[in-house]
Write a structure and sequence with these properties.
The chain has about 180 residues and is of the alpha+beta class. Helix content is about 20%, strand content about 35%. The protein has a single domain, classed as Jelly Rolls, CATH 2.60.120. The chain is built from four helices and eleven strands; from the N terminus they run E-E-H-E-H-E-H-E-E-E-E-E-E-E-H. Strands 1, 2, 3, 4, 6, 7, 8, 9 and 10 form a nine-stranded antiparallel β-sheet that branches. It is globular, with a radius of gyration of 15 Å. About 25% of the residues are buried.
Length: about 180
């Protein structure tokens, strides 16, 4: 089961061991209320038949998927890629990740600019809304395999902060004040 907690505003690579101890946990319900991030538990051993995954894919129109492995051995230009993933950014589309193996952290900002760390492990699927500032890093195991889902052709363009004038950011900020549904 995924865990999420408030964390400090450390700007260095969060793979450092001393930043792994959560101080204040947040429930998945409050995570959604505060950020719009959604969580689903998926049976990765039989993910193609998993009813929850199939329903989410159908309801959201995810028609394309691929898989990424992040490790020193498998990811070309490993250090540079991790630095890019960890740079605070947003996307114009949702970011959907299903962890097939390994583990890592997604950090997202709430309305008060606090970081919330989301620990993902095998079977965790999260959907990070369009327009939210976030970042990703591996944990000390330095290994994750994740399925990525897209509507149509894959688009993975990060827009580094600041990107407050983008339409997706404005729409996200509006949802922060009106509430997520």
């Amino acid at each position: 089961m995924v865990r999420a907690w408030f964390m400090d505003n450390e700007t260095t690579d969060q793979r450092l061991e001393h930043h792994r101890n959560p101080q204040e946990f947040i429930s998945l319900e409050n995570l959604f209320t505060k950020t719009g991030v959604e969580y689903f538990k998926i049976n990765v051993d039989n993910h193609e038949a998993d009813e929850m995954l199939q329903r989410v894919r159908k309801d959201r129109g995810y028609s394309y998927e691929d898989q990424i492995t992040c490790s020193r051995e498998c990811l070309p230009d490993y250090e540079a890629k991790l630095k890019n993933f960890f740079t605070e950014h947003l996307h114009t589309d949702e970011e959907i990740r299903l962890v097939m193996d390994g583990s890592g952290y997604f950090d997202v900002r709430d309305a008060d600019e606090n970081w919330i760390r989301i620990e993902v492990t095998r079977g965790d699927m999260i959907i990070i809304p369009s327009g939210i500032y976030h970042r990703f890093t591996l944990d000390t195991k330095n290994f994750i395999v994740a399925k990525r889902y897209f509507v149509g052709e894959p688009v993975w363009l990060p827009y580094n902060r600041p990107a407050d004038d983008m339409d997706c950011r404005k729409a996200y900020v509006k949802k922060l004040t009106e509430g997520f549904k």
